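Hi C.,

You asked whether I'd gotten around to modeling the 164-residue construct. I have! Everything is below, sequence then structure, no commentary in between.
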Amino acid sequence: MSSNTAASAPSTTFAPDEGHGVRARWNRFAELLTRLVPHDLLALAARVGIAAIFFLSGRTKVEGFLMLTPSAYELFRTEYKLPLLPPELAAHLAAYAEHLFPVLLVLGLFTRLSALALLGMTLVIQVFVYPDAWPTHLSWAALLLYLVGRGGGALALDRVLRIA
Protein backbone atom coordinates (compact mmCIF):
# COMPACT_ATOMS: atom_id res chain seq x y z
CA MET A 1 0.00 0.00 0.00
CA SER A 2 1.52 3.29 -0.99
CA SER A 3 1.57 6.30 1.28
CA ASN A 4 -0.38 8.19 -1.38
CA THR A 5 -3.39 5.82 -1.04
CA ALA A 6 -3.44 6.02 2.75
CA ALA A 7 -3.34 9.80 2.69
CA SER A 8 -6.32 10.04 0.35
CA ALA A 9 -8.61 7.77 2.43
CA PRO A 10 -11.29 9.67 4.35
CA SER A 11 -10.84 10.00 8.08
CA THR A 12 -13.29 8.11 10.31
CA THR A 13 -12.62 10.22 13.37
CA PHE A 14 -14.06 13.63 14.09
CA ALA A 15 -11.96 16.63 14.95
CA PRO A 16 -11.93 17.43 18.66
CA ASP A 17 -14.78 19.70 19.69
CA GLU A 18 -13.37 23.16 20.30
CA GLY A 19 -16.46 24.30 22.22
CA HIS A 20 -17.19 27.19 19.87
CA GLY A 21 -18.50 25.54 16.70
CA VAL A 22 -22.06 25.06 15.57
CA ARG A 23 -22.10 21.44 16.75
CA ALA A 24 -20.85 22.38 20.22
CA ARG A 25 -23.47 25.11 20.54
CA TRP A 26 -26.20 22.76 19.36
CA ASN A 27 -25.11 20.07 21.83
CA ARG A 28 -25.18 22.57 24.71
CA PHE A 29 -28.66 23.69 23.62
CA ALA A 30 -29.82 20.05 23.46
CA GLU A 31 -28.46 19.44 26.98
CA LEU A 32 -30.35 22.50 28.22
CA LEU A 33 -33.58 21.22 26.64
CA THR A 34 -33.03 17.82 28.26
CA ARG A 35 -32.84 19.51 31.66
CA LEU A 36 -35.82 21.82 30.98
CA VAL A 37 -38.08 19.02 29.67
CA PRO A 38 -37.50 16.12 32.07
CA HIS A 39 -39.09 12.68 31.92
CA ASP A 40 -41.47 13.56 34.76
CA LEU A 41 -42.99 16.40 32.73
CA LEU A 42 -43.18 14.30 29.56
CA ALA A 43 -44.82 11.43 31.45
CA LEU A 44 -47.39 13.73 33.04
CA ALA A 45 -48.25 15.30 29.68
CA ALA A 46 -48.50 11.88 28.02
CA ARG A 47 -50.68 10.51 30.83
CA VAL A 48 -53.13 13.42 30.82
CA GLY A 49 -53.18 13.82 27.03
CA ILE A 50 -53.94 10.21 26.15
CA ALA A 51 -56.29 9.82 29.13
CA ALA A 52 -58.41 12.72 27.87
CA ILE A 53 -58.82 11.12 24.44
CA PHE A 54 -60.04 7.79 25.81
CA PHE A 55 -62.11 9.22 28.67
CA LEU A 56 -64.00 11.60 26.37
CA SER A 57 -64.65 8.73 23.98
CA GLY A 58 -66.01 6.69 26.88
CA ARG A 59 -68.31 9.53 27.92
CA THR A 60 -69.99 9.45 24.49
CA LYS A 61 -71.08 5.88 25.17
CA VAL A 62 -72.80 6.46 28.52
CA GLU A 63 -75.38 8.56 30.33
CA GLY A 64 -74.93 9.36 33.99
CA PHE A 65 -72.66 6.95 35.78
CA LEU A 66 -71.76 4.26 33.24
CA MET A 67 -75.27 3.59 31.90
CA LEU A 68 -74.68 2.63 28.26
CA THR A 69 -76.74 4.50 25.69
CA PRO A 70 -78.72 2.78 22.94
CA SER A 71 -76.44 4.49 20.40
CA ALA A 72 -73.39 2.84 21.98
CA TYR A 73 -74.90 -0.59 21.43
CA GLU A 74 -75.84 0.40 17.90
CA LEU A 75 -72.27 1.51 17.14
CA PHE A 76 -70.91 -1.86 18.18
CA ARG A 77 -73.61 -3.71 16.21
CA THR A 78 -73.41 -1.80 12.93
CA GLU A 79 -70.16 0.15 12.65
CA TYR A 80 -67.49 -1.45 14.82
CA LYS A 81 -68.48 -5.12 14.23
CA LEU A 82 -65.68 -6.62 16.31
CA PRO A 83 -65.04 -10.30 15.69
CA LEU A 84 -65.28 -12.85 18.52
CA LEU A 85 -67.24 -10.64 20.93
CA PRO A 86 -70.98 -10.02 20.99
CA PRO A 87 -71.65 -6.30 20.40
CA GLU A 88 -73.35 -5.86 23.79
CA LEU A 89 -70.33 -7.27 25.65
CA ALA A 90 -67.86 -5.29 23.52
CA ALA A 91 -69.79 -2.07 24.20
CA HIS A 92 -69.66 -2.62 27.96
CA LEU A 93 -65.99 -3.60 27.98
CA ALA A 94 -64.99 -0.61 25.86
CA ALA A 95 -67.03 1.89 27.88
CA TYR A 96 -65.68 0.62 31.20
CA ALA A 97 -62.10 0.48 29.93
CA GLU A 98 -62.38 4.01 28.52
CA HIS A 99 -63.35 5.23 31.98
CA LEU A 100 -61.15 3.13 34.26
CA PHE A 101 -57.77 3.22 32.54
CA PRO A 102 -57.74 6.97 31.81
CA VAL A 103 -58.55 7.73 35.47
CA LEU A 104 -55.70 5.45 36.54
CA LEU A 105 -53.37 7.18 34.07
CA VAL A 106 -54.20 10.65 35.37
CA LEU A 107 -53.55 9.44 38.91
CA GLY A 108 -50.40 7.71 37.76
CA LEU A 109 -51.61 4.49 39.38
CA PHE A 110 -50.74 1.23 37.61
CA THR A 111 -49.50 3.42 34.78
CA ARG A 112 -47.77 0.71 32.76
CA LEU A 113 -50.73 -1.69 33.04
CA SER A 114 -53.21 1.04 32.08
CA ALA A 115 -51.08 2.13 29.13
CA LEU A 116 -50.78 -1.49 27.97
CA ALA A 117 -54.55 -1.95 28.18
CA LEU A 118 -55.20 1.20 26.13
CA LEU A 119 -52.46 0.20 23.69
CA GLY A 120 -54.30 -3.10 23.18
CA MET A 121 -57.53 -1.20 22.66
CA THR A 122 -55.78 1.06 20.14
CA LEU A 123 -54.55 -2.01 18.26
CA VAL A 124 -58.07 -3.46 18.10
CA ILE A 125 -59.45 -0.13 16.86
CA GLN A 126 -56.71 0.09 14.23
CA VAL A 127 -57.02 -3.47 12.95
CA PHE A 128 -60.78 -4.05 13.11
CA VAL A 129 -62.57 -0.70 13.22
CA TYR A 130 -60.75 2.19 11.53
CA PRO A 131 -57.70 0.87 9.64
CA ASP A 132 -57.36 4.08 7.62
CA ALA A 133 -56.90 6.15 10.79
CA TRP A 134 -53.39 4.84 11.37
CA PRO A 135 -51.76 8.29 11.78
CA THR A 136 -54.03 9.03 14.74
CA HIS A 137 -53.57 5.58 16.21
CA LEU A 138 -49.80 5.81 15.75
CA SER A 139 -49.73 9.03 17.77
CA TRP A 140 -51.77 7.35 20.52
CA ALA A 141 -49.44 4.35 20.43
CA ALA A 142 -46.38 6.60 20.74
CA LEU A 143 -47.69 8.19 23.94
CA LEU A 144 -48.77 4.82 25.35
CA LEU A 145 -45.47 3.13 24.47
CA TYR A 146 -43.57 5.93 26.20
CA LEU A 147 -45.60 5.27 29.36
CA VAL A 148 -45.17 1.50 29.09
CA GLY A 149 -41.42 1.88 28.67
CA ARG A 150 -40.68 4.69 31.11
CA GLY A 151 -43.54 4.64 33.60
CA GLY A 152 -45.57 7.48 35.05
CA GLY A 153 -42.72 9.59 36.45
CA ALA A 154 -42.29 11.28 39.82
CA LEU A 155 -45.69 12.97 39.63
CA ALA A 156 -47.51 9.62 39.80
CA LEU A 157 -48.98 7.55 42.60
CA ASP A 158 -46.90 4.64 41.31
CA ARG A 159 -43.81 6.47 42.58
CA VAL A 160 -45.37 7.25 45.96
CA LEU A 161 -46.49 3.63 46.38
CA ARG A 162 -43.22 2.29 44.91
CA ILE A 163 -44.98 0.41 42.13
CA ALA A 164 -42.70 -0.13 39.13
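If it helps when you're writing up: The chain is about 70% helix and 0% strand.

Thanks,
B.
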